UniProtKB/TrEMBL annotation:
InterPro entries xref list: Acid_PPase, Calcineurin-like_PHP, Metallo-depent_PP-like, Metallophosphoesterase_PAP
PANTHER family associated with the record: TARTRATE-RESISTANT ACID PHOSPHATASE TYPE 5 (PTHR10161:SF14)
Protein residues bound to Fe cation 2: 77, 115, 209, 246
Keywords: Glycoprotein, Hydrolase, Iron, Metal-binding, Secreted, Signal, Zinc
Gene name of this polypeptide: LOC120263810
Organism, as annotated: Dioscorea cayennensis subsp. rotundata
Name of the protein: Purple acid phosphatase
Cofactor note: Binds 2 iron ions per subunit.
GO MF, one annotated term: acid phosphatase activity
Segment forming the signal sequence: 1-22
Highest taxon above the source species: Eukaryota
GO CC terms, sorted: extracellular region
Length: 329
């Protein structure tokens, strides 16, 4: 396979990016001197502050301060209803810059695209010009963020979903740089497989917009269950967490035969869909139908995930300890 040096020119010099082996662009994210890191993750948010987006943002600011977060992850559907029109679309400032104003949130944001982003000008969200407007913004299709104790694998999941490709006259999706679907998906999967196989990181977190496991409106995403999940569950890869949005709620699901935790953090703005479809296979640890967000705190040995509602109340926590020699304890 063709390997190339991938250099992303960026106004943010702190992460100059070189991909030596894997094909995915990689970013180096510094963490704290004690080798711990913390972050917030949020999805399905950009509504110019409405539907409680501003309230959630305020609580993110408060919790972000408490935890001294290192960065923020956006799991997609960044701008409603149909992404950005172009790089000068005021929605970028109205839904991002002017909303997440807290001091603690002035950190790097790493974002993937959601299906609503593809309904507009998806390429605009990837454009470095946006970083001149707000230097926090970094959105790519699929990429990696490396830290001393964890690696984050961001995957562009929208192209996987077949129904978005149907009726192109009726539904606009910006498939520039993506089509044809099959070729694109197989490259994404191949790149991820190489990246996971080369990873020696203690913690591995995969981030995508679409659900793999969900008990709400959208349920499981069949294409991801078929094509992505087997790779995430491969014992030699040892993926710890899969984080997504798409369903506008908070969820924590895991199953007895897999070490992966499925975390839905799609509560960035419009929520309360009132749809709950539990299945029998998985263990549902949290389903919260309203707005909110999650935090992730990692050290070499410990992972802790906390779920917060729109008022910043803790509604669920999960933690795991592992030592160097026994991946799952
Ligand atoms: C916003 O949050 C408040 C609770 O703080 C809740 O009463 C209200 O219904 C929410 N609004 C929407 C649109 O979800």
């Amino acid at each position: 396979m063709h390997r190339r040096l991938f250099i992303v020119t960026s106004t943010i010099v702190s992460f100059l990016v070189i991909s030596s082996f894997a094909q995915l662009p990689q970013f180096e994210q510094p963490i704290k001197p004690d080798a711990s890191l913390s972050l917030l993750a949020i999805g399905d948010w950009g509504r110019k502050g409405t539907f409680n987006q501003s309230l959630v943002a305020k609580q993110m600011g408060r919790i972000g301060e408490e935890l001294g977060i290192d960065f923020v992850i956006s799991v997609g559907d960044n701008f409603y209803d149909a992404g950005l029109i172009d790089v000068y679309d005021k929605s970028f400032e109205e839904s991002f810059t002017n909303i997440y104003t807290a001091k603690s949130l002035q950190k790097q944001w790493y974002a993937v695209l959601g299906n609503h982003d593809y309904r507009g000008n998806a390429v605009a969200q990837l454009d470095p010009i946006l970083r001149d407007i707000d230097k926090r913004w970094l959105c790519l299709r699929s990429f990696m963020v490396n830290t001393d104790i964890a690696q984050f694998f961001f995957i562009d999941t929208t192209p996987f979903v077949k129904k978005y490709w149907k009726h192109p006259k009726k539904n606009h999706y910006d498939w520039r740089g993506v089509a044809p679907r099959k070729k694109y998906i197989s490259k994404v999967l191949k790149d991820l497989e190489i990246a996971l196989s080369e990873s020696t990181s203690i913690w591995k977190v995969v981030v995508g917009h679409h659900t793999i496991r969900s008990v709400s409106e959208h349920g499981d995403t069949d294409e991801l269950v078929d094509m992505l999940l087997p790779m995430l569950e491969a014992s030699n890869f040892g993926v710890d967490l899969y984080m997504n949005g798409h369903d506008h709620c908070l969820e924590h699901i895991s199953s007895d035969d897999s070490p992966i935790q499925f975390l839905t953090t799609g509560g960035g703005s419009k929520a309360w869909r009132g749809i709950f479809n539990p299945n029998k296979v998985d263990t549902l640890r949290l389903f919260y139908d309203g707005q909110g967000f999650i935090s992730l705190q990692l050290t070499k040995t410990d992972a802790k995930v906390v779920y917060y509602d729109v008022d910043g109340n803790v509604i669920h926590t999960w933690s795991r300890t592992k030592d160097c020699c026994h991946p799952y304890i």
